[in-house]
Amino acid sequence: MKDVDRRSLDDDDSSPGSRSLGSSAVSSGVSTPATSSTATATSQKTKIYQEGGDFSASLERLGLSIPSHQQFSVMIHKHEVPRKVFHVSIGFLTLWLYTIGVQFEQVTPVLFTLFIGIGTCDLVRFQYPAFNKLYIKVLGFLMREKEVRQFNGVIWYLLGLVIVTYIFPKDVSLLAVLLLSWADTAASTFGRAYGYLTPKIGSKSLAGSMAAYLVGCISCWVLYSYFIPSFSQHNRPDDIMWHPETSNLSLKALVAFAGLVGAVSEAIDFFDDNLTIPVLSSSFMWLLIKATSN
């Protein structure tokens, strides 16, 4: 998640231009006909699409504001609690599926089906405003305001998971999911809370990157020191890429590198981090383990 300054998303529709417009109308005592108001509203909608401006205010003018963001502004709009809970839960769900022996070839088709389904749903809602309003009314608590008019971040999340589970070995893919689920959430949480106290790294903060590093280390340690050896009966010969017997990299070194990979992947500000984090982290870890193998 990007720990960027989101104050502009919390502003109300009270720009100097709108205040002066309203005050001049009142002072002049001029009443506007209904047809004129309709035409003005239509031109305003067109202008919003063309010129942008304050995003929350723009959505309200278009009738596309997210109700849950207004009702629970601190929990949902500012801290994104439901969205973060969803992200974190994916990591726990992934580990649980691993412990019961579910293989990636069983999961990848499901992820791909969800990717196609949700992507199609987004294309439909962009074309039909009534459906879009219903969509954001039901699922708005998991959305950011920019996703009202853009593709849902879940789409890129699913695409990232499809790519890593299809291409990379099981342990590398599992670690990538944990980095996306836990390290990225930690970066967003601590970046928003304490980012102003630390230097910026592009659009990210050092506080967020440090949190991503620490949680990335913990995730790697938990995966390789407990889950993989404890449930090895579910692993086939080529499922696990890193073995202490066949690698020049110790577990401690692997953990340190995994934390660094998580922090760097999260800090790279390119496209959508729901896609870039799992793909980049998997690629980096695969290259590292491959290069240090006996």
TrEMBL record:
Keywords on record: Membrane, Transmembrane, Transmembrane helix
Any one Gene Ontology cellular component term annotated for this protein: endoplasmic reticulum membrane
Entry's transmembrane regions: 85-104, 110-131, 151-168, 206-229, 249-268
Signal peptide interval: none
Annotated region (Disordered), positions in chain: 1-43
GO terms for MF: ATP-dependent diacylglycerol kinase activity
Extent of Low complexity compositional bias: 15-43
GO BP term (any one): phosphatidic acid biosynthetic process
Protein name: Uncharacterized protein
